[in-house]
Amino acid sequence: MADFIEQRLDEIRSRNLYRELKVVDGEQDATVVLNGREVLNLSSNNYLGLANHPALKEAARQALDRYGCGSGASRLISGNMTAHEELEQRLARFKGTEAALVFNSGYQANVGIIATLVEKDDVVLSDQLNHASIIDGCRLSRAAVSVYRHCDMDHLESLLEAAPAEARKLIATESVFSMDGDIAPLRELVELAERHGAMVMVDEAHGTGVRGPNGAGVVAEMGLGDRVLVQMGTLGKALGAFGAYVAGSARLKELLINRARSFIFTTSLPPVVLAMAGAAVDLVEKEPERQCALRHNTERLRNGLGRLGYTVGGSTQIIPVMVGEEQPCMELAARLLDAGFYVQGIRPPTVPPGTSRLRVTTMATHTNEQLDRALDAFARAGENLPGPEYNEPSATAAARQR
Questions:
Q1: Catalytic residue among 43, 126, 175, 178
Q2: Residue 240 and residue 250 in contact, taking contact as beta carbons nearer than 8 Å
Q3: How many whole angstroms separate alpha carbon 25 and alpha carbon 33?
C-alpha cells in the first residue's frame, strides 16, 4: 500500500499537479501572513472583507455566552437550536423566499439537494463548468446526467427535447461560475425550463452578498425568485462565516429535512457560526457601499491586467488570468508570491486540461495603492514566462497598448 501511495504522488508531481497546503497566520484580510511572510491576498473568497469584522466577532461572543460551543447532535436528534431557526428565518427574508434551510457546507448542500430531487430514471442537465459538488450530487442521485456546453442554451434545449417525457428533469447551474467568473444566462435558462417542465436549481455560492438588491444574488438581480425552485448559497465566502443554505418554498424545506442525507446524518453547525452568518447578512444589507467598493476594485485590476497584455476573463469579482499549461501557470504564481502577492494557480482536474489559469479575486477592502502594486508585480512576473502566450515581456505589451 505504501508503494502505491508513493507511485500516485510521483505521478501527480510529474504532471505538475502536486498541491500542498500553505499556512495563514492571523486574520483573513486584504493582507495575510502566509507561511510566516506578509503578502497581499488576491486569492480569497472573503469578497466583502467580513471574515474579521467586529460585528461578526461580537455576535460570536454573545452566541458563545448564550449557547456554548457545539450543537451536540444532528438537527433531527437534539441539535436543532434556536440559533438555527433564527438564522433560517433571517435568510428567507434576505432571499425573499418562503423558507430557508441551513446546511453544513455548500458541498453538502448541493449533494443533498440533487439526490433529493431526482433519482433513477430522472434526468439532470448540468452546465459543463459546474462545481465539483454539483457533479458529485448528480452522480450520487443515480439519475441520468446530460452535460450541456457552458452557458449554451441551444445545446441545453436540444438535451431537454431529447429527455424522456415521463422523467423528472432538473437543470443545475451556478449563477457566478467559480473558476471563470462569468454569469449564467438565467433568464433564458428559466424560460427553457418552463417550456419543458423542468425544475431549476441555481448555486449562488459566488453571487450571495455581492450581486443583486441587498446582496441577495443573481436570481434576485434578474427578478427570477418566484421562477427558480432551488437557490443555494454559502455563508463562508462573501458573508465571511461558514456553512450554506437552501432558499425556496416551505414544502422544499420539508422535503430536504426528510430526505437529504447530507442534512440528516451530520452534527449541526455550532451556534457561534450561525450568529456570525446572521450578523453578516445584516451588514450586507446595511452597507451596500461594500458591493460598490468590490466592483471598483475588480474593474481597476481587470482593466490593468488587460493593459499589461494578459488574457483575462469573467465579468465579476473573479478574474481568471488564462495561461494554458500547468508549468507556466505555476511558475507565474511562484514569481508573484516571491514578490509578495498571493495568487492561486488553478490546474486540472479543477479546470479542463489546457486551461490552467491564475484565479485572481479582489476584495472590497483592497486599496488602490495595493492594487497598483499588484499590477506592477504582474508586469514584472510576466516577463519571459515560458509558454506560447507569453513570448514577449508583458511590460512591452503594456507599453504598446497605452
A1: 178
A2: no
A3: 5
Q: In the annotation, is 237 catalytic?
A: yes
Once rounded to an integer, what is the mean pLDDT over residues 274-298? 98
End-to-end CA, the chain? 58
Confirm or reject CATH 3.40.640.10 for domain 54-286, answering yes or no: yes
- Domain coordinates in residue numbering, the chain: 17-46+288-401, 54-286
In the residue annotation, 178 being an active-site residue is answered as yes
Q: What are phi and psi of 320, to 5 degrees?
A: -80, 125
Please write down the long-range contacts of 152-157, taking CB distance under 8 Å and 24 or more positions apart.
Answer: 153/185, 153/188, 153/189, 153/192, 156/125, 156/189, 156/192, 157/192, 157/196
Here the cell at position 159 is 438535451
* CA trace torsion 380, 294, 246, 125 (10° rounding): -50
Q: Which one, of 376, 288, 360, lies nearest residue 323 by Cα?
A: 360
**What is the per-residue pLDDT across 106-148, written as a single tens digit (0 to 9) for each?**
999 999 999 999 999 999 999 999 999 999 999 999 999 999 9
Helix axes 271-286, 54-67, angle to 10 degrees: 150
Torsion of CA 290, 292, 293, 299, to 10 degrees: 140
What is the mean predicted confidence (pLDDT) over 49-78?
A: 97
Which segments of 156-312 are extended strands (E)? Answer: 169-174, 199-203, 230-234, 244-248, 311-312
Do 17-46+288-401 and 54-286 have matching folds? no
Are the C-beta atoms of 317 and 298 separated by less than 8 Å?
Answer: yes
Given the residues 84, 95, 169, 237, select the one marked as catalytic. 237
Candidates 131, 169, 206, 366; catalytic one = 206
Query: Which class is 17-46+288-401 in CATH?
Result: alpha beta
Give the predicted TM-score (pTM) of the model. 0.93
